Amino acid sequence: MAQLGGGNQPILIFPEGTDRLLGRDAQRVNITAGKLLAETVRTTLGPKGMDKMLVDSLGDIVVTNDGVTILKEMDIEHPAAKMLVEVAKTQEDEVGDGTTTAVIIAGELLKKAEGLLDQDIHPTVVANGYRQAAEKAQELLNLISFEADDRDTLLKVAMTAMTGKGSEAAREPLAELVVDAVRQVEEDGEVDTDNINIQRISGESVNESMIVNGVVVDKGRTDPGMPKQMEDAKIALVKYPIEVKDLETDAKISLTDPAQMQAFIENEEQMIRDMVDKIIASGANVLFCQKGIDDLAQHYLTRNGIYAIRRVKKSDMSRIEKATGATVVTNIDDLKPEDLGEAGLVYEKKIFDEVLTFIEDCRDPKAVSLILRGSTKHVAEEIERAVEDAIGVVASTVEDKKVVAGGGAPEIAISKGLKEYADSISGREQLAVAAFAEALEVVPKTLAENAGLDSIDALVDLRAAHEKSFYIGLDVFAGEVVDMYQAGVVEPQRVKKQAIQSAAEATEMILRIDDVIATKGTGAAPDMGGMGGMPGGMPPMM
């Protein structure tokens, strides 16, 4: 509740029970929330990062060191912390990797901003300095990037993304699968990763994973009497129910004698038979239906030797369309021979406890499937997350054709350039640019800490080495600084570009907030009185 004095009569502005934080208090709480969130995921960064075990209210377990997965699974309440979660989600959507990097950079930027605010530097000045630094960082990033999209570089990019994840033991064969899949679906320099279908099946080692040049659908035939295998397949994609539709109104049909009932049933049968006849007339011998298929229709389809699957996902229909050249038909009456797709082989196969349909031998398919294996469900899930990251970074490299060295090398190089740039700026923004430069060093510092190395020694060695080359990064396995490009540790430029940009923008937005008003009773606002009892005023995140 807020009030304005009017004699002895208070004037109410906000409803009773409203919590409000003003000025420095609001900034302090928001900054602390962001720092705490960054600290939560910080230990997962790098090849020697640790995993988190997340347990939900039903007891389901997720074990991962994937930053965006951790943040999505956590029940985060604080509004400022949620803004950093959005940074991770954006990073995941745009690039597919670097989510932890983006969040810890944002957390460090907030930490450095807190020190500047304590020196009575206005938040707007800090935000402006950060914006200038982010723009200069993008220029410096272009200078330290190099062009490459050859197969060898793509394999290195994929393996770098999977290092430190559950798939590390088999990262080389998985990298081969990922690169082959991305190159297969590439069209005119663009990669739509939705055209890469991942089927996760537990029960075997990760080395049993494979690529299918076509589409794998996680369903079997609708009727066991249908052919189990279809060569020279003519594929119909139908987004129309092969069954009698229910009435859309509450109308009732009154039947007065058995003959009418028999006629009604025969009419329904004739409608279904007509639909099946149209499929047969088109020349199709394989049917994928996005809707339902009536039992009677299944009988007719089986009798005519047609392989059919019902209730196929929309995403699978799109991939089959890309792989076989078929056209999705929304009305069975419109199905024509030219709408059919082609595949050399369509067959059903059971792997472990999953029944799958394989569509193979397609002519230049622009959709592929990866079958990932893992000894247990949790292992297979973590392998899938690692492969998804690898697909994202390889796709980014194919599209942009620009990569940078890994191991903290770009952050040190950009930090060095920003410190020099700060000396050329007048005014208090200079301090914010210098703070931005120091904040970027959190990445190599964290890599060292997570590997059990002395972070101060690592930073000193990196700074000295960067006087000669901006390829020098931290080899956490050897515990020394090396040329990361020669060591085969490379990352897409887009990962760093997006991480720095989104972290800077989120930080700037948080710094400009000087008033937090939370209305009680809506179910959307956190308790901002005691702030959940966590240090710095952040409510429990889980």
TrEMBL record:
GO MF annotations in UniProt: ATP binding; ATP hydrolysis activity; ATP-dependent protein folding chaperone; unfolded protein binding
InterPro entries: Chaperone_TCP-1, Chaperonin_TCP-1_CS, Cpn60/GroEL/TCP-1, GroEL-like_apical_dom_sf, GROEL-like_equatorial_sf, TCP-1-like_intermed_sf, TCP-1_chaperonin, thermosome_alpha
Gene3D superfamilies registered for this protein in UniProt: GroEL, GroEL-like equatorial domain, TCP-1-like chaperonin intermediate domain
SUPFAM superfamilies: GroEL apical domain-like, GroEL equatorial domain-like, GroEL-intermediate domain like
Record's keyword terms, sorted: ATP-binding, Chaperone, Nucleotide-binding
Keyword set includes Lipoprotein: no
CDD domains, A to Z: cpn60
PROSITE patterns from the UniProt entry: TCP1_1, TCP1_2, TCP1_3
Function: Molecular chaperone; binds unfolded polypeptides in vitro, and has a weak ATPase activity.
NCBIfam families: thermosome_alpha, thermosome_arch, thermosome_beta
Family: Belongs to the TCP-1 chaperonin family.
Name of the molecule in the record: Thermosome subunit
Lineage of source species: Archaea, Methanobacteriati, Methanobacteriota, Methanomada group, Methanobacteria
